[in-house]
Design a protein that fits this description.
Shape: elongated
CATH topology of the largest domain: Mannose-Binding Protein A, Chain A
Number of helices: 8
Helix content: 10-25%
Keywords: Disulfide bond, Glycoprotein, Immunoglobulin domain, Proteoglycan, Repeat, Secreted, Signal
Largest sheet: 7 strands, mixed
Strand content: 25-35%
Subcellular location: Secreted
Main location: secreted
Structural class: alpha+beta
Distance between the termini: 77 Å
Protein name: Aggrecan a
GO cellular component, one term: extracellular space
CATH architecture of the largest domain: Roll
CATH class of the largest domain: Alpha Beta
Amino acid sequence: FPMKPTLATDFILSVFFLCAFSKHSPEHFNKTLYLDRITMVGYPMTPTDASIKITELHSNDSGVYRCEVMHGIEDGYDVVDVQVQGIVFHYRAITTRYTLTFEKAKAACIQNSAVIATPEQLQAAFDEGFHQCDAGWLADQTVRYPIHDPREACYGDKYEFPGVRTYGVRDVNETYDVYCFAEKMTGKGFHTTSPNKFTFEEAEAECAKLGAKLATTGQLYLAWKDGMDVCNAGWLADRSLWVVFHYRASSGRYAFDFFEAQLACQSIGAVIASAQQLQAAYESGYHQCDAGWLLDQTVRYPIVSPREKCSGDLEHVPGVRSYGLRSADERYDVYCYVDKLRGEVFHASSFEGFTYGEAVAYCQGKNASLASTGDLYATWKQGFDKCRAGWLLDRSVRYSINNPRQQCGGGKAGIHTVYKFPNQTGSHDLHSKFDAYCIKGKYIYSLSSGSGDQPSGSPASSGDSSGASGTDDLLS
């Protein structure tokens, strides 16, 4: 007589006459949790129908239920095994925040083994503790987000009260993130690794070799819900790896016109960042007090902690500062964007260190090339940590820190640059000795242009990092 629960937000137990209802393990049964959620859908309209309906299913409703039916002096019982499946999750395009139209939002969920969530599903997720300060599309063309701990910029229409915020029904061409609902796993998720990690292409090949394929974001959420716990970053099918970083010419600060800025990013394995990508990086905590070109020919910089000479047009309010649209011949730094690792980056060293030429030769001897600055940022995003300054393709000297310690970049995570002079300017003589960072893969770089002979001098390590943390440079 019992019907299996569906992945809507309710299920029905068909019984007759009087019914005593409880979880099979009474010590875990809390009647108050079911108040206003249980109804007899047919009784008394149909006297012989005592079907019970439970609405607004939550994950903790899973379990074995016992239903006992009494008719006069006779009674009977049966048990129902209820497994509430599915999970609601927030999804953002890998490029940046708020880029999905309504149709693209639905497609993004489908590509990640899910469907766009309903308001009822988001409400149920909120009731179970889901908190996310990001507006996202739902199936009814509304835009909402769940907030348990209200704070400034997350108040929405409910101000300081917890609850699901709503923007109401929106135009389908507006862009937001999306909330997806994944129902059940069609296979089994597992983690695999190698001593040298995988590029995206290698990860695809490794999964294929194991008779599998890269998991989607939805499948990873389902595996997590089923208890998967692995503290290692890994590729998913949507290539979710990206990083925005600040880049400066070796000759000094503010040296690129708009066209040179684009070429500079391309020369280091990246592209010039868009305003939306810089905004997304800022929202992830990126702080950099250096004005840089963006794709739309504006000049901007992200400030998390405003201070004198970094206040810009927003004064003491955190946010991305803008100089607006600038003439293409003006000179600034540039913000670059990289969304994938083009091979395997590895560290190389010798007892005496390498000159730039020796570093190039060493990498070539390993069937590799010197890594670009973009490559080092991409591998940093994957967790690479090496407190050793090394040559890169553009003749800069940098190192990657994910586990901050005081002796390595002043205790800040990010890519740290070693300049010639203590004021964070100047490039090293090509005969200076450092380690090297090489990249092995199908993308092998060569530097066709760049700085020639440069003044020599002893190195001075900068205590600043481009990437996840700030800099002591001040805007002039």
